[in-house]
Task: inverse folding
């Protein structure tokens, strides 16, 4: 794969208007699949440009996946207003549909960070995806009471010094799932993975390759 991905800014149709988005394409080589990345909480400064969301996109692009990052409703240039995770799930499903229409038979993966990780988990329960990556998932606040769990390869990455999403809460939630996702705990990792982003990227690439 070329080290120079191609990025394109665009808008996609969402349930309440346009959603601002960026598509990152691998520079060269055969496309391996496509991915959608969900950003952290918009009311706490989260956008598709968040460093962890960007790192997730980079991991997919380096793995040969065309990757869509988008802004949830009411974020930056996306239409609409924040909807407490309910409308944001619809936004994520619209982004998945857009990617499916573009790359039909290719594997489609879903990833998210914090609030976006919880939304991605919910989306992966209601629609089929081929893989899921959840970084510091804010499950207790935005994805409790799931009727089932995602039926795909699934990685959860959590820092053990996360000041916003409690590592023990994440482990307890995962223990309630059968068979449950694969868990990677990053020692000394905090919520935004400061200084650990390349480690996060490499771990995600390794999981995609498996």
Result:
């Amino acid at each position: 794969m070329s080290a120079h991905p191609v990025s394109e800014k665009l808008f996609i149709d969402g349930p309440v208007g346009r959603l601002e988005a960026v598509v990152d394409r691998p520079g060269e080589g055969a496309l391996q699949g496509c991915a959608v990345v969900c950003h952290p909480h918009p009311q706490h400064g989260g956008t598709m440009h968040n460093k962890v969301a960007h790192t997730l996109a980079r991991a997919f692009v380096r793995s040969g996946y065309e990757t869509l990052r988008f802004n949830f409703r009411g974020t930056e240039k996306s239409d609409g207003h924040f909807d407490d995770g309910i409308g944001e799930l619809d936004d994520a499903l619209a982004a998945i549909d857009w990617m499916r229409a573009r790359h039909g038979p290719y594997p489609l993966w879903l990833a998210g960070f914090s609030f976006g990780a919880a939304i991605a988990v919910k989306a992966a329960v209601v629609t089929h995806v081929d893989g899921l990556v959840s970084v510091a998932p804010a499950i207790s606040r935005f994805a409790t009471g799931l009727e089932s769990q995602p039926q795909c390869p699934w990685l959860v990455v959590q820092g053990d010094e996360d000041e916003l999403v409690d590592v023990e809460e994440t482990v307890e939630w995962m223990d309630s799932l059968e068979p449950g996702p694969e868990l990677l705990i990053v020692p000394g990792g905090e919520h935004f993975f400061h200084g650990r982003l390349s480690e996060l990227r490499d771990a995600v690439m390794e999981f995609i390759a498996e």
